[in-house]
Amino acid sequence: MAKPKIIIDCDPGHDDLVAILFAAKHLDLLGVTTVHGNNTLANTTRNGLIALELGKIDVPLAMGAVEPLVQPSVGIASGHGKSGLDGHEFADPRLKPISQHAVDFIIETARQHQGELIIAMIGPQTNLALAIKREPRMRQWIKEITIMGGSTTTGNFSPAAEFNIAADIEAASVVFESGIPLRMVGYNITRQTGFDSADIARLRQSGSSACQAIADLMQFYLTRQGEMYGLTLAPMHDVCAIIPYVYPDLIQFLHTSIRVELTGTYTRGMTVCDVRHPRGSAETSLRNRTEPNGFVAVSARSRDLIDRVIETLEHY
Ligand code: BDR
Ligand code: CA
Predict the structure, then answer these.
(1) For 247, left (φ over 0), alpha (ψ -120 to 50), or beta?
(2) Secondary structure (3-state) at 193
(3) Would you put residue 86 in left (φ > 0), alpha (ψ -120 to 50) or beta?
(4) Ligand 1: centre distance to CA 288 (Å)
(5) pTM for the whole thing?
(6) 284 C-alpha vs ligand 1 centroid, how far in Å?
(7) CA 133 to mean position of chain CA atoms
(8) What residues are in contact with ligand 1 under a 6 Å CB criterion?
(9) How far is the CA of 238 from the centre of ligand 1 (A)?
(10) Element at 58 (helix H, strand E)
């Protein structure tokens, strides 16, 4: 069977790098697009090129939006350090981005692969929102959007909002309201799905220089997550949005309504997910329902998932 075709739109970022490496081994990765988010666009682009070089992945990388659509920038995510990819010293990448803008690259790739293309959104959603506004036929062309972002429970940017949504809330609303089939794996799943010290030791033992570099990065990320959130895992947020296309049984989803809160004194940027009924809001007579617009992740076999990711990284 042909491998699913995918573009990764990202803001690398430790976990973005792992998602790129994982997708390149299992899927038909057509390109990587970068966006502001974990760090400046210049740094997320540099880090994306580093990921491609580290994995010897031969796909185009296109640079996208420098800042959010409407709101001011929320600033860089300190969890990834000053460069956005702290923990290992990399030489400046020799690869360069293509000259085409990410928004044009996404539209053109969707046009060429109508009905087949999955877009993985693992950073703020500015590029895809712009693409949908610029080319409304994207709504028919894209097969599915898979999102790492949001949460059915707590956020990390605020008690209500997860970082990728919080970093461009209006863009996220455009994407969630686009009518394109959606899959959301949120912080409720990803904060408990990560590498522990033993996983990092296993990567270090695997011998290759790429695995040594990944282990250095993950050690930095683990330490920082412990300091910031008291976590004993380095959460592999972003790869969780890729997993369903490789190992469909590892994450369980509910088809329901997922809405982005655009106002709210304490809740702006929250993803309001109707998980009041285990089979989805469409099946019940609950009050105040809105139409289902996507699949939201409600549980995961986190340990198995991480084992599959480590096995894949060991091939680098
Ligand atoms: C998300 O925010 C970023 O820091 C991570 O790369 C991930 O995409 C988790 O909230
Ligand atoms: Ca990310």
Answers:
(1) beta
(2) coil
(3) beta
(4) 31
(5) 0.97
(6) 33
(7) 21
(8) 13, 15-16, 38, 77, 79, 122-123, 148, 156, 162-164, 187, 237-238
(9) 7
(10) none
Q: Choose one of 8, 15, 43, 236 to mutate for the ligand 1 pocket test, by most ligand atoms within 8 angstroms of C-beta.
A: 15
**Residues 126, 145: Cα–Cα separation, whole Å:** 14
Contact 145, 176 (CB under 8 A): no
- Of 9, 11, 168, 238, the catalytic one is 11
Told to judge if 11 belongs to the known catalytic residues of this protein, a careful annotator would answer: yes
Return the ligand 1 atom nearest residue 156 CA. 10
| Residue of minimum CA distance from atom 4 in ligand 1 | 38
Select from 22, 38, 187, 236 the residue to mutate for testing ligand 1; criterion: most ligand atoms less than 8 Å from CB: 38
> Would you write out the chain's pLDDT as a tens digit for each of its 316 residues?
899 999 999 999 999 999 999 999 999 999 999 999 999 999 999 999 999 999 999 999 999 999 999 999 999 999 999 999 999 999 999 999 999 999 999 999 999 999 999 999 999 999 999 999 999 999 999 999 999 999 999 999 999 999 999 999 999 999 999 999 999 999 999 999 999 999 999 999 988 999 999 999 999 999 999 999 899 999 999 999 999 999 999 999 999 999 999 999 999 999 999 999 877 766 677 888 888 999 999 999 999 999 999 999 999 9
| Ranges of each domain in the chain | 5-313
The residue whose two tokens read 């697009």 is 33
CATH for 5-313 (1.10.275.10, 3.40.50.150, 3.50.50.60, 3.90.245.10): 3.90.245.10
Count of all residues that appear for the chain in the document: 316
Measure the N-to-C terminal CA separation of the chain; round to a whole number of Å: 24
